[in-house]
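Format notes (please read before filing issues)

Several people have asked whether sequences and structure tokens are stored in separate files. They are not. Every record keeps both together, in the order shown below: the sequence lines, then the token lines. Line labels are part of the format and must not be stripped during preprocessing.
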Amino acid sequence: MARKKAEGIELLRPKQETVELQDMTLTDFFAAFAMLGSSTMNHPEDLAKEAYDKAEAMIKEREIRT
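Then the structure lines:
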């Protein structure tokens, strides 16, 4: 099915760059899940750093256990 052409206020909405699933690394995947349990009160940059720190720790632990 063809996508409806944007009109009206939809034209003003910024275009979001989509990330292909094939481009997602295991670290990205773990970081996404780490963010689910994080406080939303944190600054976005701090939240992202904490999520990737947790993801890297999960990768290291995974290497030890496998």
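For reference, the curators noted about this record: The chain has a mean pLDDT of 84. The chain has two helices and no strands.
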